[in-house]
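Query structure, 252 tokens:
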């Protein structure tokens, strides 16, 4: 399999890949609680692995993923979905580490800064000769930020086109259970993409015991490598299909 990781390639390899298919893939996410059984970087790791498979399957290159810069006081399990402080306890961290204002800027300022960061990255990728830029938001709320950045970029930086997706919303018609937070869907994707980063044995054996910070179907019952493979294949096909459709539209 050819290497599609932009940062690992020699200049002549980049030119050849870009001339064959000028599509760039960029995974964005962060670090966030995804249950006791998943790595905290799941969102970005998941999106990055999908980006790699998209480039391998449909051409183009995967740019280095973005783990940092997102809003840390909104849309986050540790801050917005932990009223009893159970996640903080699991992290062995005091509640004040996540108190409002701990980032030193407002939620709105953090949102704006992140959108500006994405626009900066989009401009950089455009300068490197790519015609279509696909932002894959592993952390679902970031699709809104990515879409806002892409919309601005598409007005100001024609003819290059950027677009954003989280993947799961593209396959809901064929996999109705796609999309969750650390439940059967995301856990299964990780079991297919990076199985060494999943440990279901860390979850309580008692099916009646509450799972902390997990949304969606219970991964103990419904997560599997096979379900993950089905999900990965469907998402990769959907993303590459849309990216090539955009490229075709641009070229008339």
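Result returned for the query:
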């Amino acid at each position: 399999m050819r290497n599609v990781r932009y940062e690992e390639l020699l200049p002549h390899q980049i030119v050849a890949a870009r001339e064959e298919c000028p599509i760039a893939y960029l995974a964005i996410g962060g670090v966030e609680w995804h249950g006791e059984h998943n790595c905290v970087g799941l969102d970005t790791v998941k999106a990055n692995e999908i980006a790699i498979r998209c480039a391998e399957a449909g051409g183009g290159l995967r740019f280095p993923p973005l783990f940092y810069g997102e809003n840390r006081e909104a849309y986050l399990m540790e801050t917005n979905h932990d009223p009893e402080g159970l996640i903080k306890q699991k992290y062995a961290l005091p509640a004040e580490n996540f108190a409002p204002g701990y980032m030193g800027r407002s939620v709105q300022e953090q949102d704006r800064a992140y959108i500006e960061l994405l626009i900066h990255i989009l401009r950089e990728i455009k300068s490197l000769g790519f015609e279509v830029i696909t932002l894959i938001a592993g952390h679902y709320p970031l699709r809104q930020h990515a879409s806002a950045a892409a919309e601005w970029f598409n007005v100001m930086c024609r003819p290059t086109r950027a677009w954003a997706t989280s993947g799961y919303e593209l396959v809901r018609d064929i996999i109705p259970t796609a999309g969750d937070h650390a439940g059967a869907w995301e856990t299964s994707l990780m079991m297919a993409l990076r199985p060494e980063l999943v440990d279901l044995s860390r979850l309580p054996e008692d099916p009646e015991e509450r799972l902390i910070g997990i949304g969606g179907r219970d991964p103990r019952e419904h997560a599997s490598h096979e379900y993950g493979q089905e999900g990965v294949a469907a998402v990769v096909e959907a993303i590459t299909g849309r990216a090539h459709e955009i490229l075709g539209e641009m070229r008339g």
